[in-house]
Amino acid sequence: MAQPEPEPEPEPEPYADDGVVQWEVCGHTLRMQQQQLAGGASDGTGWRMWNSALVLAKYIEANAPALLQPRLRRPPGGGGDAAATAAAAAAPVRVLDMSAGPGLLGLACAVCGATHGLAVEVVLTEMPSESLTQLQANVAAANAQLSAALGAAYRPVSAAAFTWGESPSGAAAAAFADGFDVVLVSDCLFIAVRDDLYSELRAAMTTVCTPPPSATPTEQQASTLMLFAYEERCDDEERGFLAELEAPGQAPPFACEEVAAEELDLECTLDDGELGDLFAEVAPVRILRLQRCAQE
Ligand SMILES: C[S@@+](CC[C@H](N)C(=O)[O-])C[C@H]1O[C@@H](n2cnc3c(N)ncnc32)[C@H](O)[C@@H]1O
Questions:
Q1: 108 lines ligand 1 (CB under 6 A)
Q2: Does the Cβ of 191 fall within 6 Å of ligand 1?
Q3: Contact criterion met (CB below 8 Å) for 110 and 61
């Protein structure tokens, strides 16, 4: 008698409302818990990953060798004595994923670094909340999984508490002490508008793009690259915040350049039905490259 056909394996569900979400980067599957927890200290959004993070993850994967470069410490040939140049060449590229949610972008950078043979050291932060607890669990699980898969090429990432507008303390203070070459900020603009946190977000952006006090005068003039992804949901308020970033008189202003839409994979985003009840419709995703202007 003919055996019944086996049931096909279900397709992995990348955008589950809860449970484990999966995301492919450089041939490796990232698995992250994404549990909606009621109440608590969270702002209600950090439990899941959002469209701008998905688009930015694809952009990073497609451009990793160009993006994951030393910027605060000069690369070889950038001047300075031989010892300083050698030290700069040996130092890892330092990446921050600020307000990381489940952790997609920071983990994607660590995998890209490992698969491209780049020394990349990643720190992820979240506000102290159940979102931070979930992020720390995701980071611990990913470190174990990816170290087993990628060996020593994978540098375990770390997660710490950091609230906009506050001085980094504890693990974040230690993690921020050497400054960052690349900072990722995804879908934080809407929250700053909704919760009236403009100045706090602006202060945090300045803090994480400031070279450490130990930097040499040349390094003090170097500039962190911030990739700032957002979903255009409340046009006037968002435009106002972004215009102020560039305005002279702010200390210090940022130079701002938008990544062309043709360079983005906008097909990877969620559709209306998958957005949950927070938003009525899908908003266009934009990615800006921000760099602090050198101080006079
Ligand atoms: C829309 S979620 C974006 C999460 C993730 N970056 C992404 O794009 O998928 C906004 C994030 O901002 C964080 N957040 C909100 N208020 C904050 C604050 N005052 N300080 C630090 N993070 C904050 C939330 O916890 C959440 O992770």
A1: no
A2: yes
A3: no
Side chain identity at residue 163, one-letter code:
T
Helix and strand totals (H; E) in the chain: 9, 9
Among 228, 225, 163, 247, smallest CA distance to 190 is for 228
Which ligand 1 atom minimizes the distance to the CA of 132? 25
Full-model pTM: 0.89
- The whole-angstrom separation of Cα 1 and Cα 251 is 79
Q: pLDDT tens for residues 258-272?
A: 999 999 998 888 765
Q: Output the six-digit token pair for 209.
A: 């793009």
What per-residue confidence (pLDDT) applies to 39?
A: 57
Per-domain boundaries in the chain: 20-292
pLDDT band at 249 (very low <50, low <70, confident <90, very high): confident
Contact status, residue 23 vs residue 34, Cβ threshold 8 Å: no
Residue from 183, 110, 100, 184 nearest 135 by CA: 100
Whether 52 lines ligand 1, by a CB cut-off of 6 Å, is yes
| Ligand 1 neighbourhood includes 127 CB (under 6 angstroms) | yes
> Which contacts qualify for 274-283: CB closer than 8 Å, 24 or more apart?
274/15, 276/17, 276/48, 278/44, 278/45, 279/233, 282/51, 283/51, 283/231, 283/232, 283/233
Q: Which residues of 140-160 are buried (b: 16+ CB within 10 A; e: fewer)?
A: ebbbebbeeebeebbbebbbb
Give the closest residue to 28 by CA, choosing from 100, 97, 123, 112: 112
Q: How far away, in angstroms, is 47 Cα from ligand 1 center?
A: 9
49 lines ligand 1 (CB under 6 A): yes
Alpha-carbon distance values, 128 to 154, 179, 272, 293 (Å): 27, 21, 30, 31
What CATH architecture applies to the domain 20-292?
3-Layer(aba) Sandwich (3.40)
